[in-house]
Amino acid sequence: MNEVKINTEFIKLDSFLKWCGVASLGSEAKMYILDEMVKVNNEICTQRGKKIKKGDIVEFDGEEYKVI
């Protein structure tokens, strides 16, 4: 599991995917989310603006990213 540190109270899901290097562009992150390829805390998430907080686990393409 990869640990990703954020410096704010929360980060939006599409921004998080760019922050951790999964997506290089916002449009790429949006496609992953809308195509139901991203899970947050083990549930498929289709909300680009979902607030990701410390302790959440984001899963994409078999990789898990824990927010710290």
Automatic annotation (TrEMBL):
Gene3D superfamilies: RNA-binding S4 domain
Any one GO MF annotation of this record: RNA binding
Any single Pfam family the record assigns to this protein: S4_2
Name by which UniProt lists this protein: RNA-binding S4 domain-containing protein
